[in-house]
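Listing S7. Sequence submitted for prediction.
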Amino acid sequence: MSGDAVGSKLKWLWLAALVIAIDLGTKAVATAMLTYGDPVPVLPGFNFTLLHNTGAAFSFLADAAGWQRWFFVTLAIVVSVVLVGWLRKLKAEETWTAIAIVLILGGAIGNVYDRVVHGYVVDFLHFYWQNWHFPAFNLADTAITIGAAMMIIDAFRKPADHSGDADRSN
């Protein structure tokens, strides 16, 4: 493999940087303009509601004694290193996977920034239906979810890798 082929997908890191910038920017605006816990109606079924999540997705472990902050920071750093390594190894034609990886990477870094700086993740997008409320989330969570969905779709649309099958004759 040539050097160009190995690092070719690293060019997509700009998208991770964009996700981080938009995520942190929207969190800063939400923090500056919203009152904690006070919903601001936007559309039927959707509010801006500033909340702080010390846990993971859907507030998992939010009630733990505080150890989860550094656990999630460490986990996000490890996952980020793995994702960059995976990105470096992608083939030139694996653009879909590269985009999925950098969306997850950008979202993970956006949320880890919050954990390190604030001790919690800033959430403000709040969907609900009547008395049922979906846990509030942010744009980093959205990027992670889109990237993960892309990977799941990719798993179904890619033919299974049968290394060496092309060399066999029928």
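Caption to Listing S7: primary sequence and predicted structure tokens for the chain studied. The mean pLDDT is 85. The chain is about 55% helix and 15% strand.
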